[in-house]
Design goal:
Radius of gyration: 18 Å
Structural class: mainly alpha
Distance between the termini: 44 Å
Number of helices: 4
Strand order of the largest sheet: 1-2
Order of helices and strands: EHEHHH
């Protein structure tokens, strides 16, 4: 995945999961170099090796997120 995004949550998720590249839209030089790198990987048949880490992705699963939210609610109720 190539995401044209400013630094923030999306860029952090891509970095955490190693699921692609995040480039700030205003940074044309970095974008150009990133596209060249992606193309080089594709030509060499190595682009298929670039995939998100399954363990890192699990933290964004709805069940995992729901569990974290439930823990926050439980903590709030226990403190109240």
């Amino acid at each position: 995945m190539l995401a044209l995004v400013s630094p923030g949550a999306t860029a952090e998720v891509l970095a955490t999961t190693r699921g692609g590249w995040a480039v700030a839209p205003e940074n044309a030089h970095v974008l150009q170099n990133t596209i060249k790198e992606i193309y080089r990987l594709w030509l060499q048949g190595q682009l298929v090796d670039v995939r998100a880490d399954a363990d890192a992705l699990r933290q964004f699963d709805r069940r995992a997120l729901t569990g974290r939210l439930a823990a926050v609610f439980n903590e709030l109720v226990a403190d109240g």
